[in-house]
Amino acid sequence: MADPFDRERFAASVRRRLDGISGRRAVEAWPTLNTAMISRARRGENLTIGSFLVVCKALRLRPFDYLIDGVKRRRVTRKTILKQAVTVAVPCETRSFDHG
Prior knowledge:
It is a single chain. This protein is an all-alpha fold. Helix content is 42%, strand content 0%. The protein has helices at 7-17, 23-29, 35-43, 49-58, 78-82. Helix 2 (23-29) crosses helix 3. The radius of gyration is 24 Å and the shape is elongated.
């Protein structure tokens, strides 16, 4: 499944917003951010959803702007969930042993 998140576009937006601002200066300006979060965002690396939203809020970016429309996602229904059974229900045979 393709990733519906445009990392490169997000990273480019973060770099534009923080152009000329060091990571430490950015943390001073936006205390909700930390240098590791800023670094990952600038490079387009994985962020938790919480970190992504914090970066978006601090830098006034719109999160849905980085959603790629048209990415085919697997449809999950009750029927598909029920088909995912790991084991088949079968009668269990037990033997009784004489320990005598």
